[in-house]
């Protein structure tokens, strides 16, 4: 109802006018009440989100400009000292490198290799085999990271671990190695475990994306003489590009949040060689009693994940416009 | 309207966040206060809940506290005891989280040295001098050295529960088969390792995945190579220099030990428990262990039988410049939270915990923890090795504390990671000491 229609009615029928005005005021009252109710619940939600999400972030920023002694409760404001210390801390750079390595290898295995595997599985003629392989690859993802970390810790044990036993069985005992005990290999051993676990989940997401591609496209390509490789690059890859982009961003963000597997398998050792930002934060805060510095490391992790999060938002928005 | 709702909401959120953040500093800064002093004449109110944080979370040990708590509850029906059982590694993080959130239980576990000092510095422990000091009735029932280990600035803050020390456990049969005697000096130990290695067994199982086991080897070697007063000066970052040549000598001795007795750089890939298991499985001839692990290393169920298990003190080098009668070890015990609602009840429970009967139970299998209670070990019930180990502890001229709990956390971290690098071959002894000095200097500035 518009104002114009309301003002036109009095000349014809006063009762109708009164009714219309009454309806309008009821509608306005009702609408306003609805909006106020929505606002009330919105404020409640905002307070909860503010308390549990934004307050810790802001508080962490404050903490990162202090040194804190948790035993005495003494807090000293030190400005940007903790950030200057970050720049001079070789372990932070080591951790950043390890996180970066984690991200690169995860993108290779959990995005590109998982995509290829998903395409192969979906290309299988037998439905039973397709289901079987999907399950085989997905099951590791259903196990908790902590449990998997412990499992692989035993697999990697020198002399008594499953990996060493397998190498001996294959006559490759020369390759027997202290994978988690050597500074040069520890982080790679952890990343390998992580890929084993995450690979199946990515594969499953790609199979879902591939299933959405109309079968007619493949049939037409087959009629035109396109082989499986050509179909992979000319049909499957372009039509799952949105999922690929999303997976890359999610995988990179995940690589900067790694904690459990490193903590369980090496605790960041030997000699901090497998530290990632998360475990170094824990070490500083809870073992070295240096909460201010730990908070500064937390800010670095926050910035890394925020950047990937913004990229994700930008990417999804862009894709939505194109659609 | 839509825009105004958004603006209002944003303002409310901003105000909420700022106002909450505004209160952040006073909230964290208000933790400290004056530590209360325990009154020996205080009447105990046997009602309410008592919370206790223990370090007995391992499956074998956890029933001890559960049983003691049940017995106490049975004597005092109005009391309910809530146990938080952690293990050696997890209690470190858990305790600090509880401290940071001002949620320490009424009674909590503590090591001696800097670890315990932290609670006193923060006024988080009750001053127990009047109830457990050496001249008190209760204090006289406990090992004087153990009670003294919890004294800070002339006051007593902890209740020692058991004594702990490090010894080299060995397989008597393997030694006898090769005609090897328990070594009397460090060179003899290395020669024994050569003979054992020649026979196809691992001489000493070393597992340093957790990074603290090597600190124990080094602690004992430092006690042998560096004069005690120098060590104690170096425990304090403000007076530390770490320039005594004994440090390099001790590291060199450890290097020889690792190369001739253990699996070289792979020690970092094995866990402490896996290494212990290899001795129990008869795959290794020796294992450097705490006295509280004697009853785990050889049992009726393990390949290594209790009668085949022997131990000796890690032998000292012939040219030692420190104390050859020192032994690495320390008592471990409990403190009472300064903010506990019912301090007399907490003290009463600790008295019950350190009674003669509970001391005997703790020292006997399956626990095998040498109680700090004088006479708290019934020799007819306990493992003879544990009894003998306790005598060795009593004979020791100096108990060398664990390097990772006696030092400032930064210095401890430098020792822990540096020793892993040293064992892995990526850091020299000189570089390791340089990193420890650097950490001490940074800690002194804090």
What does this protein look like?
- The complex is a heterodimer of chains A (about 325) and B (about 450).
- With about 325 residues, chain A is mainly α.
- Helix content of chain A is about 75%, strand content about 0%.
- Chain A has a two-stranded antiparallel ribbon with strand order 1-2.
- The radius of gyration of chain A is 29 Å and the shape is flat.
- Chain B is globular, with a radius of gyration of 24 Å.
- Mean pLDDT of chain B is about 90; it is low at about 1-30.
- With about 450 residues, chain B is α/β, with parallel strands linked by helices.
- In chain B, the strands form four sheets. In chain B, strands 2-1-3-12-6 form a five-stranded mixed beta sheet. A four-stranded mixed beta sheet of chain B has the order 8-9-7-10. A two-stranded antiparallel sheet of chain B has the order 4-5.
- Chain B has helices at about 1-20, 25-30, 60-75, 90-100, 115-120, 130, 145-150, 170-175, 185-200, 215-225, 230-235, 245-260, 270-280, 295, 345-355, 355-365, 385-395, 405, 410-425, 430-445; strands spanning about 50-55, 80-85, 105-110, 150, 155, 160, 165-170, 200-205, 285-290, 310, 325-330, 330-335, 400.
- Chains A and B meet through helix 2, strand 1 and helix 13 of A and helix 1, helix 2, helix 4, helix 5 and helix 19 of B.
């Amino acid at each position: 109802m518009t104002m114009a229609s309301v003002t036109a009615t009095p000349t014809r029928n006063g009762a109708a006018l009164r009714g219309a005005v009454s309806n309008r005021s009821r509608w306005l009252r009702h609408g306003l009440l609805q909006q106020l109710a929505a606002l009330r619940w919105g404020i409640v939600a905002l307070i909860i989100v503010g308390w549990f999400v934004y307050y810790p972030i802001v508080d962490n920023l404050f903490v990162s400009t202090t040194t804190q002694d948790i035993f005495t409760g003494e807090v000293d404001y030190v400005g940007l000292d903790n950030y200057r210390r970050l720049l001079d801390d070789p372990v932070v750079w080591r951790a950043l490198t390890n996180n970066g390595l984690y991200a690169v290898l995860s993108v290779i295995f959990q995005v590109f290799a998982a995509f290829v595997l998903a395409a192969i599985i979906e290309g299988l003629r037998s439905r039973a085999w397709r289901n079987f392989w999907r399950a085989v690859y997905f099951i590791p993802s259903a196990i908790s990271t902590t449990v998997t970390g412990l499992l692989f810790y035993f697999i990697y044990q020198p002399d008594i671990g499953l990996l060493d036993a397998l190498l001996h069985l294959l006559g490759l005992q020369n390759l027997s190695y202290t994978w988690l005990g050597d500074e040069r290999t520890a982080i790679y051993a952890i990343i390998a475990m992580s890929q084993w676990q995450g690979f199946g989940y990515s594969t499953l997401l790609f199979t879902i994306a591939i299933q959405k591609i109309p079968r007619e496209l493949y049939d037409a390509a087959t009629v035109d003489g396109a082989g499986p490789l050509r179909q992979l690059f000319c049909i499957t890859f372009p039509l799952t590009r949105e999922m690929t982009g999303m997976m890359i961003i999610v995988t990179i963000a995940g690589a900067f949040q790694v904690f459990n597997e490193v903590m369980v398998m090496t605790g960041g050792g030997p000699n901090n060689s497998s530290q990632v930002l998360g475990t170094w934060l824990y070490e500083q805060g809870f073992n070295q009693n240096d909460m201010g510095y730990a908070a500064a490391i937390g800010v670095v992790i926050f910035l890394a994940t925020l950047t990937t999060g913004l990229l994700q938002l930008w990417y999804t928005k862009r894709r939505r416009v194109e659609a | 309207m839509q825009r105004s709702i958004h603006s209002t909401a944003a303002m409310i959120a901003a105000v909420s966040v700022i106002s909450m953040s505004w209160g952040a500093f006073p909230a964290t800064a208000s933790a400290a206060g004056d530590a209360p002093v325990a009154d020996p004449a205080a009447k105990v109110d046997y009602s309410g809940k008592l919370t206790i944080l223990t370090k007995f979370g391992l499956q074998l040990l956890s029933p001890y506290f559960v049983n003691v708590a049940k017995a106490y509850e049975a004597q005092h029906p109005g009391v309910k005891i809530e146990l938080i059982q952690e293990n050696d590694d997890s209690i470190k993080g858990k305790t600090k989280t509880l401290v940071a959130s001002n949620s320490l239980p009424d009674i909590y576990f503590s090591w001696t040295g800097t670890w315990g000092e932290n609670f006193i510095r923060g006024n988080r422990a009750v001053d127990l001098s009047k109830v457990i000091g050496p001249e008190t009735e209760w204090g006289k029932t406990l090992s004087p050295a153990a009670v003294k280990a919890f004294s800070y600035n002339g006051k007593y803050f902890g209740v020692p529960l058991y004594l702990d020390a490090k010894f080299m456990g060995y397989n008597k049969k393997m030694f006898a088969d090769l005609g090897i005697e328990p070594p009397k000096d460090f060179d003899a130990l290395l020669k024994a390792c050569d003979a054992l290695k020649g026979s196809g067994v691992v001489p000493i199982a070393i597992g340093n995945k957790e990074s603290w086991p090597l600190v124990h080897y080094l602690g004992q070697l430092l006690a042998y190579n560096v004069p005690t007063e120098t060590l104690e000066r170096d425990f304090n970052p403000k007076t530390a220099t770490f320039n005594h040549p004994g440090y390099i000598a001790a590291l060199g001795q450890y290097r020889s030990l690792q190369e001739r007795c253990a699996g070289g750089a792979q020690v970092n890939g094995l866990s402490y428990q896996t290494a212990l298991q290899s001795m129990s499985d008869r795959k290794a001839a020796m294992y450097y262990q705490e006295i509280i692990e004697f009853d785990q290393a050889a049992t009726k169920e393990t390949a290594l039988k209790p009668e085949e298990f022997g131990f000796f003190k890690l032998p000292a080098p012939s040219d030692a410049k420190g104390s050859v009668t020192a032994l690495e070890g320390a008592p471990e015990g409990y403190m009472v939270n300064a903010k506990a609602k019912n301090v007399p009840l907490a003290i009463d429970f600790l008295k019950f915990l350190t009674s003669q009967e509970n001391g005997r139970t703790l020292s006997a299998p399956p626990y095998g923890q040498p109680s700090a209670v004088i006479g708290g070990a019934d020799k007819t019930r306990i493992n003879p090795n544990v009894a003998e180990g306790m005598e060795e502890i009593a004979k020791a001229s100096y108990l060398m504390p664990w390097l990772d709990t006696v030092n400032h956390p930064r210095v401890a971290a430098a020792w822990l990671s540096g020793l892993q690098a040293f064992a892995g071959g990526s850091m020299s002894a000189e570089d390791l000491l340089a990193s420890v000095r650097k950490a001490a200097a940074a800690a002194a500035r804090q």
